[in-house]
Amino acid sequence: MVQENQTQLIEFILLGFSETPEQQGPLFGLFLGMYLVTVVGNLLLMLIIASVSHLHTPMYFFLSNLSFVDLCMVTTTVPNMLVNILTQSKGIPYVACLAQMYFFMAFVTLDSFLLTAMAYDRFVAICHPLHYATIMSPRLCVLLVLLSWTTSLLESLLHSVMVTRLSFCKDHEIEHFFCDLPKVLKLSCSDTFINDILLYIMAGILGIVPLTGIILSYSQICSSILKVPSARGKYKAFSTCGSHLSVVSLFYGTGIGVYFSSSTTQSSWKSTVASAMYAVVTPMLNPFIYSLRNKDIKDALRRLFNRIISTE
């Protein structure tokens, strides 16, 4: 009981990007700006998809869910960091740290699953166009999203429960701007062998398997597109995948960058910056990638603005 009470009273210290007072103002402005852009961009994308009837298709259904998850993922980490900068307090209670860690892991896993579902949607649309409406039924789309949510939440819950069995003794300083599971495990004075093994296994299953599914889908897509006789037809088919491929490359590229920066460099600052690219910059850029590269989104956005202007 004493050990449990001590664990509950722990307050972790999030070191963030810099301890220099002169850099706190620019950091606050930078991350506040990125957070506001992320919120506006993703909310606007969800609004467009919800309000335009011809965008009520499987691809945009998955995209609206992706925007919602990206918005939640950024909200899990950035507001707390902004409050810490404003109040000059870097502490985060044990329970709040555990909650932040739980939701961040869940939303990252959800991103991976939704990108895989979108890749499957593009595969069916290009490789089996005549059966697209039958295969990608509303029931299947909802089922894929529900399965993604359930799996992600349960996986994150498993990691969080395993953390609660650990004890933390003296060092409570996390070299990060949020409670990241690997960083928290390093602070424990308990044996984290089981936690580490579980982390690698689940990262392998829920990280590599979706990526493999995306690669297999696009290998079939490329094979089908190359069989199209006209250059115009090939370009049209590739253009429907361009936005999704860009988002996939950004998500997995920054994710792999975080992994290698953590394992190969001793600089906590470089690792934190890489994580910021993954956890903050990527969700901010996703709606712009889809709006700038997608004709349907641009047309819907133009009509929405024209409707707003005409009502004034």
Produce a short descriptive summary:
By secondary structure, the protein is mainly α.
Describe this structure in words.
This protein has a single domain (2-311), classed as Rhopdopsin 7-helix transmembrane proteins, CATH 1.20.1070. 80% of the residues lie in helices and 3% in strands. The chain contains 11 helices and 3 strands; from the N terminus they run αβααβαααβααααα. Helix 2 runs antiparallel to helix 3, helix 3 (58-87) packs antiparallel against helix 10 (268-293) and helix 4 packs antiparallel against helix 9 (231-264). The model is unreliable at 1-6 (pLDDT under 50).
Descriptive key words:
single chain; 312 residues; mainly alpha; Rhopdopsin 7-helix transmembrane proteins; three-stranded mixed β-sheet; 11 helices; globular
Write the layout of secondary structure elements.
Blueprint: H1 2-8, E1 11-14, H2 21-51, H3 58-87, E2 91-93, H4 94-127, H5 132-135, H6 138-164, E3 173-174, H7 181-187, H8 193-226, H9 231-264, H10 268-293, H11 295-311
Parallel strand pairs: 1-3
Antiparallel strand pairs: 1-2
